[in-house]
Design goal:
The complex is a heterodimer of chains A (234) and B (144).
Chain A: H1 13-17, H2 21-34, E1 39-44, E2 57-60, H3 67-78, H4 80-84, E3 93-96, E4 116-123, E5 129-136, H5 143-169, H6 175-185, H7 190-197, H8 201-214, H9 220-229
Antiparallel strand pairs in A: 1-2, 1-5, 3-4, 4-5
Helix pairs in contact in A: 2-5, 6-8, 6-9, 7-8
Chain B: E1 10-15, H1 19-28, E2 37-42, H2 45-54, E3 59-63, H3 72-81, E4 88-92, E5 110-113, H4 119-129
Parallel strand pairs in B: 1-2, 1-3, 3-4, 4-5
The chains are: A alpha+beta (234), B alpha/beta (144).
Chain lengths: 234, 144
Amino acid sequence: MSSAAAIPFHLGPELGRAINRTDFFRLLKSAAQHYRFDCFALARVSEASPPFSNREIIITNVAERRVALFLYGMRQALGLLKTKAAQFLAMPLTGSGSLREDYPRDLVLNEFDSNSFLLVPLFTPEGKRYCVAFSGKRAEPDQGEVAEVLLDTIRIFDKFYEEILAHEMSARLTQRETEVVKWTSEGKTSADIAIILGLSEHTVNSHIAAAVRKLEAVNRVHMVAIALRMGLVS
Amino acid sequence: MTAGEGRRAVKVLFVDDEFIEFRSLKKKLSTLTEPPVEIDYAQSIGDALGKLGGDRFDLILLDNRLLPNADFRETVPKLRGSGYTGPIGVISMDISDGYFQQFPDYGVDFRIGKDEIDADTLQYIIREYVTYNMPDVWKDDYTT
């Protein structure tokens, strides 16, 4: 019998293969399920409203219309003071909602009120702060389980940094981004470029967004002007 | 493209040579109500190309291996060649083969295991690839 069967999906070969946001959604969802949580949210830690608000969420399996309830439930369970405190810089936080389990379901206004939450702090090598919040209808994890979740989450986040965040922070355009900037400078729309390059409009727009950010432009026209000035396109 | 559009039904084309897989997918997604989703079925790439010619789809979920023995490296360029610029996700029982790492080069937006698809995951896929909001400044500045 191979011992490979015992390795959870999120720590197996798929971790090494992950290259886009959907791959990381799959890994985080698997990690959440492995530890019997129903929901997760990877987010930037907010300076304005710690730990994070709707706008800082990067990847989550919480439905769009339920995110506000999720955030409210999390703050209630963990305590606003704790999530703002300096200790959250280094230590995971756990907590549970105050709603009793036998509370009539049809009277529950926020389904997350009876959930337990675990907030895992994460850092990039540049010191930027992120976190993953897990939530589920289960007991609060004990210290040992918190340590396991922390290690698994750090492994997934390290790969996320390597594949996604490091590229976002790089100032250098990739070959695809340069191609998209070149076609934009020829007056092509995203739909035109998608047909020319055999990609989706979503992918083309992602490349444009990345190029706009890397060139510190304010819009497409500005992006093309900067690229021409820098000699990136002729 | 459907970026930023409202709450009309999201149209998904599921391409798989096994009809039973379509029924299984529909059953798994029966709990998904937000957003409303309409799923259509095509049994082959030829069938899919025919449907793309007559209707508009927001998302294609494509089985990796279609008869006789074509994988996404052959099938996706055919779909893209027809002018389809919406998102394409490749699904398979096994996505561990090395060539799957090349999926972005062939116009594929994401890959996912068949057993990983559920209402939760499709909801995420729609949010990520279909109803995503793009800042106005990134949109085509010169279109009317």
